[in-house]
Amino acid sequence: MSRIAYFGPQGTFTEQAARTLTVDDELLPVETIPAALAAVRKGEADAACVPVENSVEGPVTATLDGLAEQELLVAVAEALLPVHFTVLARTDGEPIRTVASHPHALAQVRQWLEVNLPDARPVAASSTAAAAVGVRQGEFDAAVTAPVAAEHYPLRVLATEVADVRDARTRFLLLKPPGELPEPTGADRTSIVAAAANRTGTLAELLTELATRGINLTRLDARPTKGNFGEYLFFMDFEGHISEPRIGDALAALRRRCSGLRFLGSHPRADQVAATIQPGAANDDFTGAVDWVAAVRRGELA
Ligand SMILES: O=C(O)C(=O)C[C@]1(C(=O)O)C=C[C@@H](O)C=C1
Fold first, then answer.
1. 102 in ligand 1 pocket by Cβ < 6 Å?
2. What was the pLDDT predicted at 302?
3. Ligand 1 binding pocket mutation candidate from 15, 37, 54 (most atoms within 8 A of CB)
4. Measured from the CA of 11, which atom of ligand 1 is nearest?
5. Which of 74, 131, 229, 270 could disulfide-pair with 143, CB 3.0 to 4.6 Å?
6. Which residues contact 288 (CB under 8 A, 6 or more apart)?
């Protein structure tokens, strides 16, 4: 049985994601995303489950920063959850003056709050479930939570299915120390973080390495290096698996071009969308071309 640290406490969306990614494993709630990553790095957990991006609010920066720093962790699986919220309130019927949640959650219900709780002040909490704990303890009057939080925290259900944007989704990663990679499935995602020199055209050069190999980018986020203005780390997700010749070829080219490159994993996509393969960019095209060069070198082909 593995120990999975997840961004908790109990009743977060991340707990739901961890349950879809694990079977019979021990789930360990921790208060923050850095704490979940640290638990794996310190050997207190075998894997960590954390959110990485939301279709409305974009990247979860604590996860990106945590993956760029310290010992390497790689994603071995992902989960995609639909995101709509339940609003839980104190049970004494007092007016609601504060409404707490994770900043990503508050951003996804801004319009709903303006219409339905116009007098309530939004307050950032470390997670949606931590906000519910805060309401139980009398710190806040209401919390914007995952639907499952209502089962863990006995509070008054003020509203369900709350979301400014229908069909919002959050993607979660299961992260482990480097080891055996998941098998390729044909519908995989590879993630990297690249440090590039601050000069004209570097980002375009990196993207061109993918584009010329017919590799479809699925996410691009820039995070500051926290040093000089203008210096960024580029987080890229693209279709394909490192075991494929076309992806290996692209990674080798990126490795040459970047001042620093971290491989953050190749794993099956939760939506099972198969990679788009451009003409001339199939794995057979890459291996065939390498074989041809070898034959020419041996003097077998003109
Ligand atoms: O606080 C939680 O419940 C989380 O799992 C975090 C998180 C996020 O980081 O985006 C997950 C999904 C929702 O988009 C809102 C919050």
1. yes
2. 60
3. 54
4. 3
5. 131
6. none
Backbone angles phi, psi at 102, to 5 degrees: -65, 140
Contact 126 CB / ligand 1 (< 6 Å): no
Q: Is ligand 1 within 6 A of the CB of residue 213?
A: no
* pLDDT for position 267: 98
Structural domains in the chain, sorted by start: 1-82+169-179 (3.40.190.10), 84-162 (3.40.190.10), 181-302 (3.30.70.260)
Residue entry with tokens 């979301």:
163
Contacts of residue 265, defined as CB under 8 A and 6 or more positions apart, other chains included, come to 74, 75, 76, 173, 175, 181, 190, 191
Query: How many angstroms separate the alpha carbon of residue 180 from the centre of ligand 1?
Result: 29
- Taking CA atoms, 13 is separated from 82, 84, 248, in Å, by 9, 10, 34
What is the mean pLDDT of each successive set of 10 residues along the chain, which is 302 residues long?
95 97 94 98 98 96 96 98 97 93 96 97 98 97 97 96 96 97 98 91 95 96 91 96 97 95 98 94 94 94 67
**Cβ atoms 7, 122 nearer than 8 A:** no
Q: Is 146 in the pocket of ligand 1 (CB under 6 A)?
A: yes
pTM beyond 0.90: yes
| Ligand 1 contacts CB of residue 101 (under 6 A) | no
**Which atom from ligand 1 is nearest to the alpha carbon of 51?**
9
Q: Is the CB of 7 under 6 A from ligand 1?
A: yes
Q: What is the ipTM of this complex?
A: 0.93
Burial of 125 (0-12, 13-18, 19+ CB in 10 A): buried
* Residue of 6, 7, 10, 13 with the most ligand 1 atoms within 8 Å of its CB, for mutation: 13
